[in-house]
Amino acid sequence: MRNYQLLALASAALLSLAGCAKKSSDEASAGAAKLEVRLTDAPGNFKAVVLDVQQLEVHLKDEGDPSGWQTLAFTPQVVNVLDYVNGKSALLVSTDFAPGDLKEVRLILGPSSYVVGTDGDTYALKTPSGQTAGVKLKLTNVTLAAGATYQLLLDFDVAKSIVERGNWKAGNDKKERYLLKPVIRLVAQSLQGGLRGTVTPAAARPQILAIRSSVVGPDTVSTFADASGAFQLSGLPAGTYQVQYFPTVAAPAGQPAYKNAVLTGITVTNDKVTEIVGATALN
């Protein structure tokens, strides 16, 4: 199997913008903001989800102005996003950055992404032609202030991003089973909270939805419990949530059936991870 370990993503040498590279370290720090970009993932029903990350860009001007894009000096590499779940994240960028507005981030993926299924087989992820130009992630009201640290979280949603073709059958070409249609939330981490808890039995491996009602409609974030029954959702706006649990496997013969569960009135506050007290029973 290919080695899909994250390779030296924390190296500051990879993280300088071209416009800042000409400055000395002292000049770059004076009056600068600190920008961090991290990658995290909601667990999915796969053994591995490997992304071929080719390029990372930021847009500093209004939408439609091509001169506003700046390419980060990022070495292309493959990343198993399932290594970064339940509160873990990979540091992609940590750099001094000129104060000002950020408008968009663009992630460009290459052709070598793949998944390892629960059956142990490897399946290539085909990217529709319309997305080969990259995944654009918009930012709203993000202003970097001098002396402040601003953290952006790329939250990759496995369940929504990997689409199985309905007409695929065992024995067909493995390259044709899954499509990669990246669904990534871009969250201003310093302004957000989190939610974590556990389920029992862990063997139910439920999908978990955190649903927040807002003036613009429901805000839903999902994840899966891991093998120990633990889960964590990061980058949640403050508010009151309903948490829904949906087991993804059937209970063994002779044991009580796994059931859906719902918790209401769960409050999430800024810059804090809310703990759901006690394990949520699914049988």
Give the C-alpha Rg. 20 Å
Number of structural units classed as domains? 2
Number of helices: 2
Low-confidence stretches: 1-28
The major β-sheet equals: 9 strands, mixed
Question: Can you tell me the overall shape?
Answer: globular
**Mean of all residue-level pLDDT scores:** 79
Q: Kindly estimate the percentage of residues that lie in beta strands according to DSSP.
A: over 45%
Classify the helix fraction into a percent range: under 10%
Helix and strand composition category? mainly beta
Distance between the termini: 37 Å
Order of helices and strands: HEEEEEEEEEEHEEEEEEEEEEE
Write down how many β-strands occur, each being a DSSP E stretch of 2 or more residues.
Answer: 21
Summed up, what is this model?
With 283 residues, this protein is mainly β. The protein is built from two helices and 21 strands. A hairpin with a 6-residue loop joins β15 (207-212) and β16 (219-224).
What does this molecule look like?
By secondary structure, the chain is mainly β. It has 2 domains: 1-191, no CATH class; 192-283, Carboxypeptidase-like, regulatory domain (Immunoglobulin-like, Sandwich), CATH 2.60.40. The protein has 2 helices and 21 strands. It has helices spanning 25-29, 158-161; strands at 33-42, 48-59, 69-71, 77-80, 90-97, 100-109, 114-116, 122-126, 135-144, 149-157, 162-164, 178-180, 184-188, 193-200, 207-212, 219-224, 230-236, 239-246, 261-268, 273-275, 280-281. The strands form 4 sheets. Strands 2, 3, 4, 6, 7, 8, 9, 11 and 12 form a 9-stranded mixed β-sheet that branches. A 4-stranded mixed β-sheet has the order 5-1-10-13. Strands 14, 17, 20 and 21 form a 4-stranded mixed β-sheet that branches. The radius of gyration is 20 Å and the shape is globular.
